[in-house]
């Protein structure tokens, strides 16, 4: 189990969330659905340890991570979690290699040779090895999103949070990012919790987390036609 959560009241953000208790399986891809956009955003922040519930607890790999001081919680986020936000947030003057490798120096603290080897493996996994020497400012929107995806997984996080996957991309490009992201659990053993932008349908076998006033439930869905 990658993450176990049990909440009994609203988060500190002030957005009302229903009481739930749920466990997330390792190496699984979850699509989060919620009727209210703001509530969906709040759920992602709770799952990603960016906000804390007023009461209840969150377990990550069996360890209780609620109630920790901000510095310790930040360390856990940096080492155990990866984030792919709706915007890529790349450093425009850095190359693809430099953007992707950055967490290895800041978080994993590996040496340059090991960082280069790990980064090249991740770039190959994401399918952008040919972009390694290009600066971020020269990339297409699709290439920027794939680079940000590679950066989010280069330190092999146990849990990855994806916000509005495919937002701002053409439909074909958005589906390309979605297809790559869905391979991450199988290839790295990472649990992924994602929200999808409009126009991306579920893929066969995806587990959809439906959250409403009654709580949370898992539904395995087929693509919509």
Structure description:
Strand 9 and strand 10 (215-220) form a beta hairpin. It contains 7 helices and 10 strands. It has a single domain (3-220), classed as 3-Layer(aba) Sandwich (Rossmann fold), CATH 3.40.50.300. A 6-stranded mixed β-sheet has the order 6-7-8-3-9-10. Helix 3 (96-108) packs across helix 4, helix 4 (112-126) crosses helix 5 and helix 5 (141-153) packs parallel to helix 6 (171-182). It is α/β, with parallel strands linked by helices. It is globular, with a radius of gyration of 17 Å. The chain has helices spanning 37-47, 70-80, 96-108, 112-126, 141-153, 171-182, 184-188; strands at residues 3-7, 20-24, 29-34, 56-60, 63-64, 81-84, 159-165, 191-196, 207-212, 215-220.
The span between the termini is 32 Å
Order of helices and strands: EEEHEEHEHHHEHHEEE
What is the annotated CATH architecture? 3-Layer(aba) Sandwich
Helical fraction:
25-40%
What best-fitting shape do the alpha-carbon axes yield? globular
> What's the gyration radius in Å?
17 Å
Query: CATH topology, which one?
Result: Rossmann fold
Given as residue ranges, the uncertain stretches (5+ residues, pLDDT < 50) are: 7-11
Strand order of the largest sheet: 6-7-8-3-9-10
Beta-strand percent range:
15-25%
Could you name the CATH class? Alpha Beta
What is the CATH superfamily classification? P-loop containing nucleotide triphosphate hydrolases
User: Helical segment tally?
Assistant: 7
The major beta sheet can be summarized as: 6 strands, mixed
| Number of individual domains | 1
Mean pLDDT: 86
- The structure class reads alpha/beta
The number of E-state strands comes to 10
């Amino acid at each position: 189990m990658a993450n176990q959560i049990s909440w009994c009241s609203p988060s500190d953000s002030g957005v009302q969330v229903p009481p739930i208790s749920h466990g997330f399986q390792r190496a699984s891809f979850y699509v989060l659905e919620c009727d209210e956009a703001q509530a969906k955003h709040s759920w992602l922040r709770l799952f990603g340890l960016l906000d804390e519930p007023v009461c209840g607890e969150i377990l990550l790999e069996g360890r209780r991570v609620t109630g920790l001081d901000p510095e310790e919680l930040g360390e856990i986020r940096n080492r155990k979690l990866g984030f792919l936000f709706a915007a890529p947030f790349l450093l425009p003057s850095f190359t693809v290699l430099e953007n992707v490798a950055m967490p290895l120096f800041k978080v994993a603290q590996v040496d340059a040779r090991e960082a280069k080897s790990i980064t090249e493996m991740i770039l190959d996994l994401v399918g952008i090895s040919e972009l390694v020497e290009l600066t971020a400012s020269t990339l297409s929107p699709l290439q920027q999103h794939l680079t940000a995806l590679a950066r989010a997984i280069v330190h092999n996080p146990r849990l990855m949070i994806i916000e509005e996957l495919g937002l701002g991309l053409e439909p074909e490009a958005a589906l390309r990012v979605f297809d790559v992201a869905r391979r991450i659990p199988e290839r790295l053993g990472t649990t992924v919790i994602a929200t999808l932008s409009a126009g991306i349908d579920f893929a066969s076998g995806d587990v959809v987390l439906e959250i409403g006033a009654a709580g949370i439930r898992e539904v395995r869905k087929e693509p919509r036609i």
